[in-house]
Amino acid sequence: MKIKDLRSYDIFGNIALVKFSDKMKVKDKKIFANKILKNNKSVKTVLEKVGKFKGRLRKMQTKYVVGEKTKEIRYRENGCVFRFNIDKTYFSSRLSGERKEIAGLIKKGENVLVIGAGVGPYSIVIAKNSKALKIDSNEINREANKYGLLNVELNKVKEKVEIIPGDIKKVALKLKNKKKKYNSIIMTRPQLKDSFLKEAFMLSKKGTKIYYYDFCKIEDIDKIVEKVNSEAKKNKKKIKILRKKIAGEIGPYRARLRVDFRVL
């Protein structure tokens, strides 16, 4: 067995997640997994990633390899702690820097909405690392919302973060009826056709900053910006693009793109 046979692996606190080569034997997988346990004292379990993220809920499939038999992760980043089940909820440790950067862009006294909040990483990192007044954290995955509530408790941010479960299309209408408007909206959306920009514009006002994530080929970045401008026009909003940033690679010549813009 050679290290080059491995595609990649990530460490999430107590769990290491490995993407093995299709040709690697079970015996060799266990040898490598035990090396991870030996070299990383915090890691207690090694899991194999056996499928891609699926559907709107972005669920992953993993298989136990060695160590403690658990799929519940205990993870720390940016002065925060998180608990979640890796098969039932979506979480990317690679977005740790993104979360810290976004928190740094939030101004004192802002009301913030996070759409597609998962188990609460953006919402909680913002609560702990900015002077935001209130963060509303929206997620459709029921299991993620259970962990979101737990993580809010663990990080002692109950006064700042509110978990708002449900489909953003329905939730946005309810929030609009309550005359809710936000200073900043973070859209950490999965790879779906629906942009949910209509809902974001519905809850925006003059001066609202929107941080919109999308996925595309490197050469198609300008098409995403065109899509944002087109959606704004459709919803009778004038916007100013502030920045476009590659926020990580998701495959060969494919990127996670962040477009920052302000509603005028």
CATH class of the largest domain: Alpha Beta
Compute the gyration radius: what is it? Answer: 19 Å
Distance from N terminus to C terminus (CA atoms, Å) equals 58 Å
CATH superfamily of the largest domain: Vaccinia Virus protein VP39
Task: Characterise the protein shown here.
α2 (96-105) crosses α3. Helices cover 29% and strands 32% of the residues. The protein contains seven helices and 13 strands. Mean pLDDT is 91; it is low at 1-5. The chain has helices at residues 26-39, 96-105, 121-129, 142-154, 168-177, 197-202, 221-234; strands at residues 8-12, 15-19, 45-49, 62-67, 72-77, 80-85, 111-115, 134-139, 161-165, 184-187, 209-217, 239-251, 254-263. Strands 9-8-7-10-11-13-12 form a seven-stranded mixed beta sheet, with helices on both faces. The protein has 264 residues and is an alpha/beta fold. It has two domains: 3-70, Met-10+ protein-like domains (GMP Synthetase, Chain A, domain 3); 89-263, Vaccinia Virus protein VP39 (Rossmann fold), CATH 3.40.50.150. α6 links the parallel β10 and β11 (209-217).
